[in-house]
Every structure is written in structure tokens, then in C-alpha cells.
Amino acid sequence: MSTIVTRAGKGSALTHNEVDANFNNLNTDKLQSGNTAASLTITTATINGGTISGITDLAVADGGTGSSTASGARTNLGLVIGTDVLAPTGSAASLTSFPTFNQNTTGTAANVTGIVAIANGGTNSTATATAGGIGYGTGTAHAYTAAGTSGQVLTSNGASAPTWAAASNGTSISQTYFLSQS
After folding, report:
1. How many secondary structure helices (H) and strands (E) does the chain include?
2. Tell me: the pLDDT tens digits for 155-174?
3. What confidence category does residue 39 fall into, taking pLDDT thresholds of 50, 70 and 90?
4. Local structure of residue 175 (DSSP, 8 states)
5. Which residue in 13, 103, 104, 143 has the most C-beta neighbors within 10 A?
6. Distance, CA of 73 to CA of 80 (rounded, Å)
7. What residue spans define the domains of the chain?
8. What percent of the chain is helix, strand and coil (3-state, nearest 5)?
9. What is the number of other CB atoms lying within 10 angstroms of the CB of residue 175?
10. pTM, entire model
11. Contact 167, 182 (CB under 8 A)
């Protein structure tokens, strides 16, 4: 440890020789980046070659693990094997069954172009919804009717596309019901 002469300790101004001696003492005792200290004692902790002794476990909040054992460190860091992370079984040699991922599933809907098949979640058509029209299935794709006009009703054409038609005067059925309380 360097010996430094101070004005307060001496009680008078320092001589040039005392100032020079202070700088020489500091320069002799410094530890520069790139230098290796054989042993450095700080308070009660000792750093020797890469081993630190005389300290308590460094808390997780201070960048440590809060433990001096691997098991304790995993617990403190939330990495308990079999609880927080999958426990390994077998050996790496037994890892032979890997899923095959469809490489066409990347991107966003903005990147989809062309006609997307119904089996892939599409409509198998380029049909665009029509205001007042009705969506229907053709058997192989999704389609829309043209818009009907006021007073028209949608009419089925069997397996063909539905159409709008004028409502016809149908037969009126009336029935009288009596309600009673029991």
C-alpha cells in the first residue's frame, strides 16, 4: 500500500520532493489494465489467479446467481431442470425423430399472392365481396352474387349459383291457436 504525505497530515505545504515521492508511490502500487496481480486482497475478499474467496454468494440482483452451487444457481435463476426447463432423457444419439416444418408458412398475409386453395385456408378464387351480394360455395371455390334490388329475394337454383328474383305472391296460411293456462 502506498504511503502518501498530505498537507493536512504534515501541517504545512509539501515540498517538491514530497509531491514527487507521492506520485512515485502511487505509480509503483498501481494495477494497470493488462497486468496480472498474483494476489490482491480487498477488505476480507481475496482474488488469487481467478479464484475469489472470502465473499458471500453474489445476489442475482447484482449479476450473480445467489448461490455457490450449480443446483442452487438454477433454482435462483428459475431454471430448475424438470420444472422450469425440460429434463433431458437418453443421449443425443437417440434424437432421430424431428418434425418437418412446411417452409411455405413464413411471412405475413401481405406476402400472399395468387389463389390460395381452400385446403390451405383460402377461398380458391379471386372473388371480391360485393355490397348487397351473398357469399356462396360453388363446390370448388367461394363466390359472391351480384347485389339484389329492393324487394327481391334470394332464390336457390339447386347446385348452381343462387339468384335474386322478385318475390311472388305466395299462398297465405293462417291458423288459430288457443292458449290456456293449466
Report:
1. 3, 7
2. 888 888 999 988 777 655 55
3. low
4. -
5. 143
6. 9
7. 7-52, 114-147
8. 20, 15, 60
9. 4
10. 0.33
11. no
